[in-house]
Write a structure and sequence with these properties.
Number of domains: 1
Distance between the termini: 27 Å
Order of helices and strands: HHHHH
CATH architecture: Orthogonal Bundle
Strand content: under 5%
Number of strands: 0
CATH superfamily: DsrC protein, C-terminal domain
Length: 105
């Protein structure tokens, strides 16, 4: 379990190297989420996206990337919203230990 100082004021990790699956669970608990296999599939995808593009995706690129990698059924905004309420790109990136996407409020 990481100390509060490992996170910024919005709950994003300050250092990418601090991320582990256990840290994702810690963040999920703060967000009142229970991570399922479906969540983990998207979290892994987000981490792959970051490795590939060196940035956290905004919503539209996330939807397209999910469709490309996971299929049309999972590459839909409504699917991502069901897993990550509010802002899937922002919340998903937070859980994946990535920086906040540039154009997320």
């Amino acid at each position: 379990m990481l100390p509060d100082t490992a996170f910024d004021r919005e709950g994003f990790l300050r250092s990418l190297e601090d991320w582990t699956p256990e840290v994702a669970e810690q963040i999920a608990a703060r967000e009142q989420l229970v991570l399922t296999d479906a969540h983990w599939e998207v979290i892994r995808l987000l981490r792959d996206y970051y490795r590939e593009f060196d940035s956290s995706p905004a919503m539209r690129p996330l939807v397209k990337y999910c469709a490309l990698k996971l299929g049309a059924d999972k590459g839909r905004s409504i699917y991502l919203l069901s897993l990550f309420p509010g802002s899937p790109a922002k919340l998903g990136s937070k859980l994946a230990g990535l920086p906040k996407p540039d154009n997320c409020l």
